[in-house]
Amino acid sequence: KKTVYGYKDHIAVDPKSEFVTEFVCTPANVHDSQVLEELLEGEEEAILADKAYDSREIRKRCRQEGKFCGIWPKTIGVGLCRPARRGVLNLFRQLRRKGAF
Prior knowledge:
The chain is of the alpha+beta class. The protein is 30% helix and 23% strand.
């Protein structure tokens, strides 16, 4: 098993207020999908995240609760949806510039 050093920050942001609502810091060897539940408050109307957070369980839960699931699917190749991915990355860039994280 490869040794991994460092930490990763996982951040939830309210899109209306642009305030950070939840923050979790994990060792770099903890997979992103393992902390998604800690970031959710239960009142979200939508969940937007990159493909590291994708799972069948979270997609099923979103459908059952009537929430929009904007998690980038693991099965979509990078070259197939570059314009859409660019839009997601621009959103994260804007939030960073505004100091959301």
